[in-house]
Amino acid sequence: MAVSDFIQNNKDRFLNELLDLLRIPSVSADPKFKNDVFAAAEFVKESLIKAGADTAEICETKGYPIVYGEKVINPEFPTVLVYGHYDVQPADPYELWDSPPFEPVIKKTEEHPQGAIFARGSADDKGQFYMHIKALEAMMASGDLPCNVKFMIEGEEEVGSDNLDKFVIENKEKLKADVILISDTHMISMKDPSITVGLRGMAYMEVEVTGANRDLHSGTYGGAVANPINVLCDMISSMKDENDHITIPGFYDKVADLTAEQRARLNEAPFDLDEYKKKLKIADVQGEKGYTTIERVGIRPTLDVNGIWGGYIGEGAKTVLPSKASAKISMRLVPDQDWHEISELFENYFRSIAPKSVTVKVIPHHGGSPAVVSDSSIGYQAAEKAMEETFGKRPIPTREGGSIPIVALFQKELETDPILFGFGLDTDALHSPNEHYGVANYFIGIETIAAFFKHFKTLSSQ
Question: What pTM was estimated for this model as a whole?
Answer without folding.
Answer: 0.84
